[in-house]
Design brief:
This protein is of the alpha+beta class. About 50% of the residues lie in helices and about 15% in strands. The mean pLDDT is about 95.
Length: about 100
């Protein structure tokens, strides 16, 4: 699977997990660096994809240190873990519980 088809998954303080298409991060990155390509965002985006494919840490670094939640929230999708149905039986018996 190409990096272009992947999602950046982040776990929030409340334990929810969110997926943001790497494309959203790539476009943000490319728009910033378009100035290095005479304002050509398409060329900048191709360079961004190349960088992202060779070093996925660039994606995380850009997302965490340059972008904000406001930059991605419209594209974010909550990720729900899928576990086998029989795991719920064990979870019911051994899972953490609270009465509130």
């Amino acid at each position: 699977m190409s990096i272009r088809d992947k999602n950046y998954i982040i776990t929030m303080p409340d334990g929810t997990r969110w997926g943001i298409p790497v494309e959203v991060i790539a476009v943000h990155h490319a728009q910033y660096f378009a100035k290095d390509f005479d304002g050509n965002t398409a060329r900048s985006l191709e360079a961004t994809w190349s960088a992202f494919e060779s070093n996925s840490y660039i994606i995380e670094d850009w997302a965490k240190n340059v972008m904000t939640w406001a930059d991605v929230k419209e594209e974010a999708v909550r990720v729900v873990a899928s576990i086998p149905a029989d795991a719920y039986h064990e979870g019911w018996r051994t899972g953490e519980c609270k009465i509130k």
